[in-house]
Structure of Hydroxyethylthiazole kinase:
Amino acid sequence: MPAIAPSYFLDPGVLAETLDSMRAGAPLVQCLTNAVVTNFTANVLLAAGASAAMVDFPGESGDFAALASSVLVNLGTPGSEQRASMREAVAAATAAHTPWVLDPVAIGALRIRTSLAHEFAAASPTVIRGNPSEILVLAGSGGGGRGVESTDSVTAAAHAARQLALRTGAVVAVSGPTDLITDGRRSVHVHGGSPMLTRITGGGCALGAICAAFLPAHPDPLVATVSAHAFYSAAATRAEAMSLGPGSFAPAFLDALHLLSPEQLRATAVLS
Ligand SMILES: Nc1ncnc2c1ncn2[C@@H]1O[C@H](COP(=O)(O)OP(=O)(O)OP(=O)(O)O)[C@@H](O)[C@H]1O
Ligand SMILES: Cc1ncsc1CCO
Ligand SMILES: [Mg+2]
């Protein structure tokens, strides 16, 4: 199999329509996410036009997963109570057909989150989103990155991403300078973004929440996930142009998520 699969052509007009329908639907995104990025993630969702609810306690998370538009399960700080909440939310989301996103943060050497990620990957997530090192671990062909950071390239994880997608039935999204989104048969690269997203915390974690926000907006999860990445990248490019460094990038990014129009997304998105 070649390192890079033939690209699937997606009309940029579809990205614009999906952004429009995400905002029109104002999805309620339940986030079970890590303690570092919770506030930033909620702000990113609100700026984009979605709603956020960090309902992550046992006894509540399952009930809420049945009502939410979509769910994010991010393994960044997986304490025992959060692990119980996540299991409850995954079971309820599955029963209620609520789409959900798995972000297997920093798996590899860390035993608890690595086995939890394998458990959840086998529970039919709609999307698995991670950096290249995380995707390689989940596919069974890597040892992990450096904490939450990747030590592998997107190209090095491309084959593993397709295999993981075919095995789990999930759309797999791999982030980096160029993002790769695949369902195992179709692959799309999203260019753009900003290295500033790696100089603030939560650049990848909030992208997982945006993927969850877009899932109810299009029936094809590959199209929804590509639209989410293209939107996020376009906003980051615009924010970088308006900022001096990480400190001013973060609020400029929220502004750009709020201001970016479907027409601007259609005109500036670069896919291959
Ligand atoms: N060099 C780069 N140029 C442009 N965009 C980038 C670059 N590196 C990462 N990105 C973008 O940053 C976002 C986060 O990707 P990254 O791979 O850093 O996630 P992550 O490692 O999971 O982050 P987190 O620390 O939140 O877990 C994505 O939108 C990606 O496209
Ligand atoms: C820094 C950090 N540590 C655990 S989760 C997290 C947020 C970025 O992934
Ligand atoms: Mg990450």
Remarks:
- The two ends are 19 Å apart (CA to CA).
